[in-house]
Amino acid sequence: MSGPGRSAGRCSRASAGSCTSGRLRRSTAVAEASTGTQTVGASDTDADKLVAQHIPTVVVDDLHVVYRVHGAGSGKGSATSALSRILSKRRSPSVREVHAVRGVSFIAYKGESIGLIGSNGSGKSTLLKAVAGLLPAERGSVYTEGQPSLLGVNAALMNDLTGERNVILGGLAMGMTQEEIRTRYDEIVEFSGINEKGDFISLPMRTYSSGMSARLRFSIAAAKSHDVLMIDEALATGDAKFQRRSEQRIRELRKEAGTVFLVSHNNKSIRDTCNRVIWLEKGELMMDGPTDEVIKAYEKENKR
Ligand SMILES: Nc1ncnc2c1ncn2[C@@H]1O[C@H](COP(=O)(O)OP(=O)(O)OP(=O)(O)O)[C@@H](O)[C@H]1O
């Protein structure tokens, strides 16, 4: 393992399994353009064979993430009051800390598709952002193999540019060459289904519905195999047909040797695409294990 802050004990502390890779690096990268019915758990797929090799892609070690909210509770959080404070050199009236992730540790392996579940505000998105290098760790460490890509429904492509331009922009942001983008362009547009009801790809993205934007973002991100792909609720916005297609693509990405993280409140999506689930509550890791086991425990807890 390489990267600052490495220590011999880290891998074994993080979770079960051994840390055999010599290529993991500490996560500092800024994420790129921020995204059935088949059961994956027990089948003898290529992805399952990869998982069995135990090649780590992400090591999260006792991770804590804290947000600091300036001006919280004072009722003076506006830009004008902040400017007046700066000019008068007064200190911010109050800073509230939100401890969003508390001591989470796990190791993700090549070929795994990991669902992140938990109630609203339990820290799922924050954990993904920290793994992507978008949020700093207050304490603990994150090591990743390769470049993690966070695909969120709020990921910023350029709303004033056409869908067509955004496909190119998103492709470049993910490290594809112009030639690769040209080759895959038709495939991306077709997968997104944006043109099913007319020539929408030549219109600016601001004219798209939220579902259409999410579909295009997912299609761009899914056009490339990722070392670590993190998808935050992207499937929730597409219609049923698109969801099935996306789930199929997630299974393929998993086979293409990467690791996929999927945040979702839809337990069926998680069951259909993930072989492992991490359950968070109040920023703490409640359970980490095979999909069926964790979802069963989560559903039992939520029936109370
Ligand atoms: N930018 C922010 N500033 C301050 N606090 C934040 C910020 N973003 C999230 N939080 C807080 O961090 C905690 C975890 O939020 P997070 O969005 O990670 O939860 P989540 O599990 O993804 O929730 P959901 O299922 O509702 O999307 C919450 O208490 C939330 O209020």
What does this structure look like?
- This protein has helices spanning 10-14, 46-52, 79-87, 124-132, 163-173, 178-192, 210-222, 240-255, 267-273, 291-303; strands at 25-26, 56-70, 95-109, 113-117, 139-144, 148-152, 228-232, 259-263, 276-281, 284-290.
- With 304 residues, it is α/β, with parallel strands linked by helices.
- The protein has a single domain (10-60, 108-303), classed as P-loop containing nucleotide triphosphate hydrolases (Rossmann fold, 3-Layer(aba) Sandwich).
- The strands form two sheets. It has a six-stranded mixed sheet, with helices on both faces. The chain has a four-stranded antiparallel sheet with strand order 1-5-2-3.
- A hairpin with a 2-residue loop joins strand 9 (276-281) and strand 10 (284-290).
- It is globular.
- The protein starts with 9 loop residues before the first helix and ends with a helix.
- Residues 1-23 and 28-44 have low confidence and may be disordered.
- Adenosine-5'-triphosphate binds at residues 67, 69, 98, 100, 118, 120-126.
